[in-house]
Specification:
Shape: globular
Strand content: 25-35%
Distance between the termini: 29 Å
Length: about 210
């Protein structure tokens, strides 16, 4: 993490413009072909959900705009974000939040996520909630075409929220509605498009 001189930050004018609005957050939902992710998860005996958490986190960390945040009025750039994802044990109806470091290897991450989630017996560890996170979630019983999220009061919340629903079989492909919600002070639609491109590259490389 490093401090950024806001006076020379190329985004300063856009940042100031969206700082004047009461609610600078917006979301964009688009379709992703996750056929390869599904096949990869089946082949290796790991969770499709954890695979998506890893893929989305890695894609976010490839786009610079997702790395900025404010702390005590100062601008910083993160080295990388780490996943904080909702999960639910089989037979339960209440979710909990698992936070853990991202790993370079997808299979190692999926197995570590499964172990951490299975062992967790509390809703959330507030000590793990930092500015370095990426919030991830899923509604596996519903296909989603749009989504909104909760936010802290004020407009300094720069943590991206990514969520998806149930994939659908369309023309031999598994199509997933993926929602990305961000703070417009830091991230534009162009940057969400770059995230989508990086996600597609990561999926293709599985």
């Amino acid at each position: 993490m490093k401090k950024v001189d806001m006076s020379t930050w190329k985004r300063r004018e856009i940042f100031d413009f969206f700082s004047s609005v009461a609610y600078p957050y917006y979301s964009l939902t688009f379709s992703v072909d996750v056929s390869r992710v599904y096949g990869f998860a089946k082949e290796h005996g790991v969770s499709f959900y954890y695979c998506m958490c890893w893929l989305c986190t890695q894609a976010v960390n490839r786009v610079e705009a997702f790395s900025y945040f404010l702390k005590d009025g100062e601008l910083y750039r993160l080295d990388r974000r780490h996943p904080s994802f909702t999960d639910m044990k089989k037979g339960e109806e209440l979710f909990y939040i698992v936070t853990m470091p991202i790993e370079e290897d997808i299979l190692s991450f999926c197995r570590a996520a499964a172990e951490k989630s299975a062992a967790q017996d509390y809703f959330i560890n507030l000590n793990s909630e930092t500015d370095e996170l990426l919030y991830l979630s899923c509604t596996p019983t519903l296909h989603i075409s749009s989504l909104t999220n909760e936010h802290d009061s004020g407009s300094d919340d720069a943590i991206p929220r990514i969520a998806w629903g149930k994939y659908r079989d369309i023309n031999g492909k598994k199509e997933l509605g993926l929602s990305v919600e961000v703070n417009h002070r830091f991230i534009d639609g162009y940057h969400i498009g770059k995230f989508a491109e990086e996600l597609e590259k990561l999926i293709a490389a599985l």
